[in-house]
Amino acid sequence: MFGFLLKKEIYIKENSMSNTWVFIMAVMILGNFILQMLPTSVFIPGVIIVHLLILLFSYILLKRDKFSDIRANMLFIFGLTVINILVDLNIMSQSLSWIAFGALLMWSMLGGGSSKND
């Protein structure tokens, strides 16, 4: 009888999550733009600071989204941040970063870090 309410709630939940990730992607793009503008004299601390700021803003955006699993999403973003820092500082090669990203993505898709699995 009230199935339309359930469908509307599911739509709002999915739409809210996708909007949050759009904002997170915008923060990542802005952070990468800032990294391109850094002079070489402050590049190493700049990389670390910019990526940690991206992580902080992602946490703030996810904290505002009441429908998201903040633990799983933050573990994914933390892994992505570590990979990005290692690649930007030339500690990890570009091809190895794609393998690490694929492993991180598969881990996340298979439920890694989800609070529902605990």
Automatic annotation (TrEMBL):
Keywords: Membrane, Transmembrane, Transmembrane helix. The chain crosses the membrane at residues 21-38, 44-62, 74-92, 98-115. This is Uncharacterized protein.
